Amino acid sequence: MNRIHAWMLTTAVATAAGIATPALAQDARPAAKPAAKAAAPAAEVSTVGDGELKKLIALSFHSKGPATLDGVLQQDATQQACSQYPDRTHVPEAVAKKIEAAEIKQVKYPADGKYLGDWKEGEKIAQNGRGMQFSDPVGGVNGANCYACHQLTKAEISFGNIGPSLYQYGKLRGNSQAVIQYTWGKIWDSNAFSACSNMPRFGHKGILTEQQIRDVMALLLDPASPVNQ
Ligand code: HEC
């Protein structure tokens, strides 16, 4: 079950139907006529089932290019389980353990044992936020947009902080086989190490290719990379 405010529903339906939202309609009323129910309780909260919410999403959006309705509405078991909790910190430990155990089985390590590519390419991939949007070509090459959530280098001052800073990642952790394998697994399937992570499952969902992951790995772990200066 998802708890959403009644006004969100009304606004989304109104927008989908191409009509003015209730808030706008109210603003347009003559000023002399005061709002009738000024004292009414402010936040009306209703409980909407998943089925209703899916119908509403299907009504409000349409597929275009690589951004498809199915991509939003079809959830795998992990996404379904994670949707039950408002955020990651609310996932019960037993549920988290089950998800992580299932996700780690999905990690594919490079068959040739080559984990590290070219950090210069990795930096371009980490900077690139294109791919999988309605305005992108179907089957095009995707960026990783790591900077949207992480600090990585000192030179780049524009970065998000949903995720921890990865500045000096390799310098601080070294590049033992254990660190290399963990980092690959984390990028391939973030949920293998923290259930219901906000970080995309780059390998598992086919967002990045194996070679792109090697390049991003080098960005994090190569001693010559600006991440480790
Ligand atoms: C949408 C936000 C988001 C994006 C994009 C993202 N991450 Fe993350 N990342 C997170 C969050 C949040 C965490 C911390 C929680 C967790 O571990 O899942 C994290 C954790 C990590 C960790 C583990 C850090 C540790 O201390 O062990 C690594 C490594 C990492 N990210 C690398 C990357 C790389 C490389 C990219 C780009 C290919 C990337 N992330 C893109 C959100 C993101």
TrEMBL record:
Keyword tags: Heme, Iron, Metal-binding, Signal
InterPro entries: Cyt_c-like_dom, Cyt_c-like_dom_sf, Thiosulf_SoxX, Thiosulf_SoxX_II
Residues of the signal peptide: 1-25
Domain Cytochrome c, residue spans: 117-224
Pfam families xref list: Cytochrom_C (PF00034)
Xref: PROSITE patterns: CYTC
Name the record gives this protein: Cytochrome c domain-containing protein
Organism: Cupriavidus pampae
